[in-house]
Write the structure tokens for this entry.
Amino acid sequence: MTDLVRAPAPVVMGVLNVTPDSFSDGGRYADVDAAIGHGVRLRDDGAQLVDVGGESTRPGADRIDAETEAARVLPVIRELAGAGVAVSIDTSRARVAEAALAAGAVVVNDVSGGLADSDMARVVRDAGCPWVLMHWRGHSRGMRDLATYADVVADVRTELAQRVDEALRAGVAAEKIVLDPGLGFAKTATHNWQLTARLPELLDLGYPLLFGASRKSYLGALLAGPDGRARPTGEREAATVATSLLAVAAGAWGVRVHDVRATADALAVWRASGSPRLLATADVGSAPARAHGQGER
């Protein structure tokens, strides 16, 4: 399993929402059997990781309690892990992450970057597993009000560096850290496009970068019809593939997507093209060129 989470870039992370209210596929995989079946399909379609989440983080979503979140994800994680699927747990709660790791998850994907639960760093440190730290400013209910930046790329870079510093101080190994710019989380469409265009400025932090644009509302707005209505979530796949390829070409370690096959196919073509941007060494297990401890800032 370690080899899977340290796979050479680009890594495809497939989204598995076991929720009734996620923005794209809420309710489709709330049934345990349906979720397990879809998780296996994602793996078979080319996902190196299947990201299981039990709490919606769409804009405006209300929080659920930890017991409900755990009840949704743990049976699915156990079965997928038992079937040889590499699973990441999409949660901002340390209790849920700890239980998920015990059930067989191998990565913690924390949308709060450790801010929502101060105990998350301990859980990750003790487990010795990779930790995805996403840029985050607050929970879904109020995050629209937090989308104010002097320079979104510079500010996100600074705030991610702060999250790295905190993780390192807590004893998390530098080679276990992955960063995510958090597209759509306290970000406007303009912010998302700026982050995409200037991705190398975030890569300069020296850590693998996960990019997640899949089916998000800013893609729907870009593809709006003549009547001004946004493209429905299920019809944003070509745009998702395009943004994922742009990110990988810029140096992203991985992409988080709902339709794994479409992205995996596009990446196969990209690899076959012999692109000079193909990174053979950008992986979770590579120690960053520079760890942003207090002495370097």
